[in-house]
Write a structure and sequence with these properties.
Blueprint lengths: L1 E6 L2 E3 L5 E9 L3 E10 L6 E6 L5 E3 L7 E6 L4 E6 L8 E13 L2 E8 L3 E5 L2
Parallel strand pairs: 2-11
Antiparallel strand pairs: 1-3, 3-8, 4-5, 4-9, 5-6, 7-8, 9-10, 9-11
Length: 123
Amino acid sequence: QVQLVESGGGLVQPGGSLRLSCAASGSIFRVNTMGWYRQSPGKERELVASITAGGGIIDADSLKGRFTISRDNAKNTVYLQMNSLKPEDTAVYYCNAFVVTGGGEHYFGMDYWGKGTLVTVSA
């Protein structure tokens, strides 16, 4: 069983900052790509940023310069530093990770999602 637990969401004023964290736990052999997605009311879930175990990053062009993804492989944790927040950044932010479980000669990889953390940007 693998769990992703997000933290760090909340209410922030426009121009403010928040740092989201997501820790993967359970019977983990290896965590490959980890990432953050967000979903606003009435919109589809969209990629914010993702990062491989080796540090390769893919991030949304529209968010470059304001959002920064990072990870701590030893802790199986991914972070999202969000600066200069705008009301349009209001959304539920979801953590995603591709996790390999198993051992010996049997391994299994699967996508996991956290339950989401709400970020509200409002005066």
